[in-house]
Design a protein that fits this description.
Layout lengths: L5 H4 L9 H43 L8 E3 L51 E3 L23 E4 L2 H7 L14 E10 L17 H8 E3 L4 E13 L2 E3 L4 E6 L2 E3 L2 E2 L3 E2 L5 E2 L5 E4 L2 E6 L2 E3 L8 E2 L3 E4 L3 E6 L2 E3 L5 E3 L14 E4 L2 E3 L7 E2 L3 E5 L2 E5 L10 E3 L4 E5 L2 E5 L7 E3 L5 E5 L1 E3 L2 E3 L21 H11 L10
Parallel strand pairs: 3-4, 4-6, 5-7, 6-8, 6-9, 7-13, 8-14, 9-15, 13-17, 14-18, 15-19, 17-20, 18-21, 19-22, 20-23, 21-24, 22-25, 23-26, 24-27, 25-28, 26-29, 27-30, 28-31
Antiparallel strand pairs: 1-2, 10-16, 11-12, 31-32
Length: 475
Amino acid sequence: MTTVNSSSLFPLLPPSGSTQFDSMVQQQLASLERDFETQLGSLHQDFTNLIKQQNGTRKSSSHHRHGAHRRKDSPTPTSPHHASHPTPVHYQQNEPAPSEKPATHSSTGSPSPVAGSGGNHSRETLAAGHGWGAQNGGVTGGSKADSSHVYTVTNREQLVQALGGNNATNGSNSTPKIILIKGNIDLNKDGNGKELTKRDFANEKDQLNHDMINVGPNTTIIGVGKDAGVSGGGFNVSNSHNIIIRNLTMSSPYDFFPGKDAQGNPHGRVYSIEAKGTQNLWVDHNTFTDGSAPPGSISGDQIDFTDGANYATFSYNQFLSHNKSILIGSSDGMTSDKGKLNVTIDHNLFSGLSQRDPRVRFGNVEVANNLYQDSSTQSNRFQYNFGIGVDANVTSQNNAFETTGISEQRLVKRFGSSGHLTDSGSLVNGKLVDLSSSPTGSGPGAGGITHLDPTSQVESIVLSDAGAGRIGQGD
């Protein structure tokens, strides 16, 4: 609204009390009244549109299954305009952000703050009661980031810059930050976009230092839209805390210098997510896929949660066509893990996997409302779903198994006799079974999710909601 003062209204005033003076005053008052009514009408229309928009958002959100498991801190998208470090523009909750423009920056350089596509989920936090990750203060990630620490990145260099500027030290950068990934980032490329080979690295440590991206505390990493992801490497969140990773397609990276595990089997150490000693981690709505490994290289686990790590929730992800999926607990000799490794795994799709969905040592792990699709003819030779290791306490609740050529006895593999498996509500090809094996445990404990879906609904829920690209649909 234009600010009006007397000098602008009456530049040349006739004598007070004259007919000309009175007429001019009446004309100006009438003009002001019309301006006021126009502005009032505009404000009323804006307010009406906002109410309609909020009602529409609430109506559509009520039909979105996974929304019941999250809470929202007021989302604050940022400006879509690309510059070196522009000041982001804030938008009110439920106000649509402007459409994104193509990035204009070069293949290297600083990341640019920008708004996410679809609904803005970048400031969402793990809901209370949603598994072990919600304990110990919960997972809020970068939800408290100020506008100068919200970035959109499209390549490795921008990602490293947004996380602190130096991959070697970024793991200690605890500043709250939100990293929005747009498109796929190949982490196994150099600054000129050249794909790296074994000859480009001196040894495994050299490769790990490049391909594994270190993430510090209080960070949210989230994909923008349906095609965001990373390949050729992964995230190292070790010895960090309060991390959120969402809405990404993560192609399993490969190790050019694979060693052997404790059993003497070939083992790669380049993971999609490595979490040693990590506290409070939420991995949600991602798709983990098998990468194409060059000859002589080996893909590592999709998620490693080990060495004193604690309080995690892995929800609504897809784990597809891979050998080793989720490892919880690194070795039988790591007795310091007792009382730690508390993890909830819920509403995920495990399809075409060979093993480790999950493999557990020592941890107290809740596995609930997941869909398992196993076949004797799948590309990765099926070995087992649940791996029950030393002193593990695994609680299986309302999981659905679709198997072809695989007996229910093969769904569980025991490593030693000290691990606990307590199962309830499992359906194998629609048949109620009990996968429990002696000794059984005491249940998920304080970290159990507060909402369990009936097993008969698990297939439709997981196939509808799990995986990358689903966030924003129906909101």
